[in-house]
Every structure is written in C-alpha cells, then in structure tokens.
C-alpha cells in the first residue's frame, strides 16, 4: 500500500471514531438562573425590563403598590404612578403624606404652613395658650380668632377624616360657627330652623371630611400648627344630638345626648365652658337628609 492510500485509510478511521462532525455548543445558565421561575428577571434599571419596571432588583409589570412607591408629586393608581386628580375625595387621591380638605376637595400638607398663616398671628393666643390643650381652654379665650388653616378631625379610626377651615373664617368672642355637611345656609335653616343670633354658617360640602355622622365619631379641633385645641370628644351614636355642658371634652358627663329634635345649631348652651371649643354635633334623620348633619364650634369667653 502506498503512502497516499495509507493516509486515506487513517483519515477514514478518524472520521468513524469522532462522528465526522464537531460537537454542538452547550449554554451554561448563569449561577442564579432558576429553572422553576423562568419569568423572574433580575435588573438594575427599567431599561432591562422590556417595558416593565425594575423594583428591588427584579423586573415587574407593576410600577407601585401604594403612594409611597411613587415620586413626591404622584399617586399610585392601577399599579402605575400618575398625577393626582384635580380634586380629591380622600387621602388616597393625594401624594405623599398629604390629606384631603373636605371643604375645597384639595390636597394639603398637614405639617406645612396653613393658608393665611402669619396674618394676625397671635390673635386668640393669650396667656392661657396651651393650658387647656385637649380641654378647650386658653386659645381664643376672650379674643377674635382667625380659624384659617384650623381643622376639624373625626378620630374614630387611625386615619382621621379631616375638614380644614378656609381663609376668612373668623370668630369673635361669644360667636358660634355651624359647619353643615353639604347644604346651603338657606336649605339648612329650612330644615333645622333659624340659627342663633350672630351665628356663622359654613357649608363643608363633603362626603369624606367633617361632619359625616354615622355613629362612633369622636371629634377634635386642631390649630394650624397641628396642636389639638379641643378634644377628643366623647364617642357619639347615630340618630342623636350631643350638646356640650362642661369643659372636659372626653367625658360622657360633659355632654347631653338627645334625639335629633333637640338640636340647637348656632346656639351654644354651655355656660360652664370656655375657650375655642366644639359645642354640639348632630345627625339628621330621614331619607336623603344626611346633608343637614352638622358640627358646631364656639369661641366662648
């Protein structure tokens, strides 16, 4: 056999031994790739998530779970961060830690400066300021009080319902302010009768703030700096009226509990009570009559 023939036999043997082809390449998965969770994709930014969002190092179709997962000026809706609505119905419609103002249906920062703060600052803050915090003594005692930025809170739950007094809400000594739930003053008077002499009326126009009275409410009055001026009050029932008779707001004995027919909106029957205080609140009975529910605040010398 010649050298050429020998080489051909050697090549043929090699092809038989090794299959005549190169082995197919294999792909080694990364160390953290699991076969049980093929859809889990790690990431460092949104660009790696094919239209999704990088959250805590994993790609997700959801941008957020709650408002806390969004930028300070946005809210979480349907798992996406979006601009808040023009008006709010609750704190869920407000970005960050803001609350919803039941008067204006606008979001506000409870820890920020109030509208009108600084104008007449110190009015109503006399020698007894702070002495009656929670009891209603001190602030406003004998002075004109500018209530701009003050708020009424219903504290029956961990997240209070809130209504903020707008600019221009001022009470002279002895004057009473009636806050109706969602009725014009003329309709309110037609339902309850005339307000007390010199009383002011404010339509809260709210279904999420104060007063919304369904039972179990306990109220507080908070100033523009966030300090409680009066309250918490006792806890009330529905289909009842509560009128203040003594200084200690939380004591059941400081309030009379009567049928709604005993309501006296605009008249503070509280000779033994002094300061800027909550003096009455009342449910309204009858189909569709909830709009006439009210709470009353008085500046009593």
Overall morphology: elongated
* Helix percent band: under 10%
Number of helical regions = 2
Q: Trace the largest sheet across and list its strands.
A: 12-11-18-17-15-16
User: How far is the first residue's CA from the last residue's CA?
Assistant: 131 Å
Give start-end ranges of low-pLDDT stretches: 20-30, 114-138
Order of helical and strand elements: HEEEEEEEEEEEHEEEEEEE
Per DSSP E runs of 2 or more residues, the count of β-strands stands at: 18
User: Major beta sheet, specifics?
Assistant: 6 strands, mixed
Q: Which whole number gives the mean pLDDT?
A: 81
Secondary-structure-based class equals mainly beta
Q: Return Rg in Å.
A: 34 Å
Approximate strand percentage: 15-25%
Describe this structure in words.
- This protein is mainly beta and 301 residues long.
- Among the domains are: 46-83, no CATH class; 130-300, no CATH class.
- 8% of the residues lie in helices and 23% in strands.
- It contains two helices and 18 strands.
- The chain has helices at 3-18, 185-192; strands at residues 53-55, 58-60, 75-77, 80-82, 99-100, 107-108, 145-146, 151-154, 161-164, 170-171, 176-180, 200-203, 219-222, 228-231, 241-244, 255-258, 275-282, 294-300.
- A six-stranded mixed β-sheet has the order 12-11-18-17-15-16, with no helix packed on it.
- The chain is elongated, with a radius of gyration of 34 Å.
- The N and C termini lie far apart (131 Å).
- 35% of the residues are buried.
